[in-house]
């Protein structure tokens, strides 16, 4: 079992490096993270974009990226399409969004004929170190699905369990997180949580232990769970936190980053290869963690 983000970085640096194709790489932040990833032995890169501009930026920024292949593309759409093509043809292992709109990147990724579609829902998962024990928290979905219904939540959960198991969490504990730990008919997300818990109990959701609803405190703190008289295998010991919607997930992701000042990585799953989609406000270290997580998943030949 991978017990920390540092362990992810260490493991990936000792594995054969995967190649990341970057759509619209003419951006100093992209060049900085690529340089850092290469220096730490985490990944190799192919840059797609304005070839002359990228070469000029590499020279003027004194980056040591002369060995990186640069493929010219004239527009954002062409960059995204070429990046996806490189992955489909096995010239690269995964695509990364550079300086272009997310919608343009995703459109190419999900193209029905030339994209990276699979039969699974595309979902996002935030990964961070646990607070007071060895292990990782997997928080989902913080970026892709806005207001998931019950069936969509089950798909998000199954994706998260799949990834957690690849990372060594054989039977991950899943907490369905809402604003409170009791079922309240006025709050539909608590009803969804109760139904999903029962589905797991009856074997409709496998390879994990699911319980909920939980409030955040009693999902991750045994002390809090005990204070409120909440028992069970998941109470206070969750590995996966399934949030009720993107509003909760996005705020939680940013609270971890800015209030708690903890490192985070992000995984986009549900396609035939993981997608590296980092925020411009992410630190270099957080971007490296996202790259390392995706690289590790590819290295296990289970994505």
Automatic annotation (TrEMBL):
It comes from Youngiibacter fragilis 232.1. Residues 6-77, 82-293 form the Phosphate acetyl/butaryl transferase domain. Belongs to the phosphate acetyltransferase and butyryltransferase family. InterPro entries: P_Ac_Bu_trans (IPR012147), Phos_Acetyltrans/Butyryltrans (IPR050500), PTA_PTB (IPR002505). It holds the Pfam family PTA_PTB. Its EC number is 2.3.1.19. This is Phosphate butyryltransferase. Keywords: Acyltransferase, Transferase.
């Amino acid at each position: 079992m991978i017990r920390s983000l540092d362990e992810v970085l260490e493991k990936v640096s000792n594995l054969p490096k995967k190649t990341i194709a970057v759509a619209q790489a003419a951006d100093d932040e992209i060049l900085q993270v690529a340089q850092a990833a290469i220096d730490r032995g985490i990944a190799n890169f192919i840059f797609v974009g304005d070839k002359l501009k990228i070469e000029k930026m590499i020279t003027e920024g004194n980056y040591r990226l002369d060995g990186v292949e640069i493929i010219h593309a004239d527009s954002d759409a062409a960059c995204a399409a070429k990046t996806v093509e490189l992955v489909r043809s096995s010239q690269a292992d995964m695509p990364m969004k550079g300086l272009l709109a997310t919608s343009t990147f995703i459109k190419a990724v999900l193209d029905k004929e030339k994209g990276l579609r699979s039969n699974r829902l595309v979902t996002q998962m935030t990964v961070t170190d646990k607070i007071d024990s060895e292990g990782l928290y997997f928080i989902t979905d913080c970026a892709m699905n806005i207001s998931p219904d019950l069936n969509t939540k089950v798909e998000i959960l199954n994706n998260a369990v799949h990834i957690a198991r690849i990372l060594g969490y054989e039977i991950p504990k899943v907490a369905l997180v809402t604003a409170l730990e009791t079922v309240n008919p006025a709050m539909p997300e608590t009803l969804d949580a109760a139904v999903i818990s029962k589905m797991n109990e009856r074997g409709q959701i496998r390879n994990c232990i699911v319980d909920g609803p939980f409030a955040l405190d009693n999902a991750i703190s045994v002390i809090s769970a005990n204070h409120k008289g909440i028992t069970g295998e998941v109470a206070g010991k969750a590995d996966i936190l399934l949030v009720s919607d993107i509003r909760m997930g996005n705020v939680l992701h940013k609270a971890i980053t800015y209030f708690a000042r903890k490192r985070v990585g992000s995984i986009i799953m549900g396609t035939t290869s993981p997608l590296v989609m980092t925020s411009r406000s992410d630190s270099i270290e957080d971007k490296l963690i996202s790259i390392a997580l995706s690289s590790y998943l590819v290295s296990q030949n289970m994505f």
